Amino acid sequence: MRRKFSIGARVKVCGGSGLDSDKCGTIIDRREIPMRGDGIPNLIGYYYWVDWNKEVAIRYDSGELRTMFKDRLIFL
User: Fold this and answer.
1) Contact residues for 20 (Cβ-Cβ < 8 A; gap 6+)
2) Which of 10, 15, 63, 67 is 20 to 30 Å from 29 at the Cα level?
């Protein structure tokens, strides 16, 4: 059964997904991610536009805000 990427769902980033590999967090409303005027998140290390059809906003257990591709997430 396929689960929905809904706000409040607990997720873990798959291993091999870069710096965020194996981190756990909660899906949040995308409006919580600060954005620059050009559609790029105003977060350290971001340089590309977000495609909200392919990505979700996450607050990791450490409190860090990020976006992550849906196909890199596992539901907990």
Assistant:
1) 13, 60, 66, 68
2) 15
Specify whether the CB–CB gap between 27 and 9 falls below 8 A.
Answer: yes
CB 68 within 8 A of CB 55: yes
Question: What pLDDT score was predicted for residue 71?
Answer: 94
| pLDDT tens, position by position, 19-49 | 899 999 999 999 999 999 888 999 988 999 9
Burial of 26 from C-beta contacts in 10 A (0-12 / 13-18 / 19+): middle
- Residue 47 structure tokens: 């340089």
pTM over 0.70: yes
The structure tokens 């967090």 sit at: 25
